[in-house]
Amino acid sequence: MSVIYRKYRPQVFSDVVGQEHIKKILTEEIKRGRTAHAFLFTGPRGVGKTTLARILAKSLNCENRKEGDFEPCNKCLSCDSIDKGSDLNIIEVDAASHTGVQNVRENIIAVSRTAISSKKHKIFIIDEVHMLSTSAFNALLKTLEEPPPNVVFVLATTEIYKVPETIISRCESFDFKRIPISEVVKRLEKISKQEEVKIDKEVLDNIAYNSEGCLRDAESLLGQVLSLGEKEISKEQAEIVIPHSSLNLVFSLTDFIAGKDTKGAIELVNNSLTDGVDLSKLTEHLIELFRKILLLKINPELQGFTREFDDKSNEKIINFTKVFSGEQIFKIIEILNKRLLEIKSSKITQLPLEMAIVEICAGESKSQQAVKSSSQNENKPPLSVDKQDNKSQSDVKLQDIEFIWSRVIENARKHNNSLSSMLQTGKLRSFSNGQLTIAFKFEFHQKKMQDIKNRKIIEDIISDNIGTQVLLNPILDTTLEIKKDEASNGEILDSINEVFGEDVEK
Ligand SMILES: [Zn+2]
């Protein structure tokens, strides 16, 4: 589906998306009439290398271009024949299929030596130039060393490291970058507007994300969406022809992992597989997301090295940096990386990812068990592991405290039996900004828990077990139901009465 790509192929420099640094230098050279004899365009596929090479060729040979201008007119005979691919002065060679020296001699060297009578340039655009054989490179090198007049070479490659240094040193090199996601989306919006089709922003975001900065891929995917022939295209409709929103899947999966919801995560993986999602890709994207979260956590400036996301996704990512600790992210990436390699060879495609999920979620509880057992040891400071980790309060959730709650009650017993019993009657309500709210049915309990001395004991025990400072906020809730088996049994209340010497209703 390259129709869209061809139809909307930029015809002038100013239409080319991105690559501002390259356009600036090239157009300046054209304006001054001082272009190089050989250019080397390097960078990922589909980011505009051959597009810019063709515009450069058109501009150099344009019959209407005035001195000091740089844009081709796109109307003259020369421009027209280049557009049609029938111009004999523009020779496009795909080195991937012409690797041998003979081809270079016949197609390039011989042709470049033919006398050029007119003022026109002969322009060779050699795509995937790194594919040439060594002898072919040597033959080309001789031509580059003594370029015939009016001959311009544009060598394009995705793998610069395979191009001999001797060739590179004779070219003016331009390093093409991936197209920023916002630019890709803008471009897609422009095309769909011209095609008079309304497409959900989410669809365009998904296309841009999946194309990984390759405009050609993005336009090709858009072409598939447009081929649905609808005037308005929703996310659901788009998913008929383009990959399911891996962007959404990746975020949902991360949500499940954050919530340690093994069941939810495994269901998502299996449903995705049924929907035809490539699990290798999904895992890769998941790793990329966690890498981004990790680098953001280290320093927000590092995100320039990571994959781009749209604004809405960026917000979610920033939230994830608060949910996961650096250590957790490190572990998750390690596990996913290891399992990624197994996906392709696994007889049960989803198994490696399922194992990774189980491992990640189990790893969580394992570390919490470590916390538990370390605090059981009275002689050692409890939770030394997490203390070193210096967990921030934002890393701790209510469920983390619930998880260690029985330990807190047990530890409290060593200080004060009745305090421990009283704590059992309380209900954990919420944890935010370091404040743990516990509801008590009886005012008497709430008051006792507010007592500075008692509060301090409990706060210290919780802090020791969870690895971060926690403040207690005992509140009263007379509607609270206390389960028979845990708190309202006579024994506990009796012991409370015994200590505090007050009548507590049973
Ligand atoms: Zn022209």
Brief rundown of the structure:
The chain is of the alpha/beta class. The protein is built from 23 helices and 10 strands. It is elongated and about 105 Å long.
Bound ligands, named by name, code or SMILES:
zinc ion
β-strand amount: 5-15%
- And the CATH topology of the largest domain? Rossmann fold
Count of strand segments: 10
Descriptive account of the structure:
- The protein is of the alpha/beta class and 506 residues long.
- It has four domains: 3-175, Rossmann fold; 181-238, Helicase, Ruva Protein, domain 3 (Orthogonal Bundle), CATH 1.10.8; 252-365, Zinc Finger, Delta Prime, domain 3, CATH 1.20.272.10; 392-500, GMP Synthetase, Chain A, domain 3 (2-Layer Sandwich).
- Helices cover 55% and strands 10% of the residues.
- It has 23 helices and ten strands.
- It has helices at 3-7, 20-32, 49-61, 77-84, 101-113, 134-145, 165-168, 181-194, 201-211, 215-226, 235-238, 246-258, 262-274, 279-298, 311-323, 326-343, 351-376, 384-389, 398-415, 417-425, 443-450, 452-466, 490-500, and strands spanning 38-42, 90-94, 122-127, 151-157, 172-175, 198-199, 232-233, 427-432, 435-440, 471-476.
- The strands form three sheets. A five-stranded parallel beta sheet has the order 2-3-4-1-5, sandwiched between helices. Strands 8-9-10 form a three-stranded mixed beta sheet.
- α16 (326-343) runs antiparallel to α17 (351-376).
- The longest helix is centred in the C-terminal third of the chain and has 26 residues, at 351-376.
- The chain is elongated, with a radius of gyration of 33 Å.
- Bound molecules: zinc ion.
- Zinc ion binds next to α4.
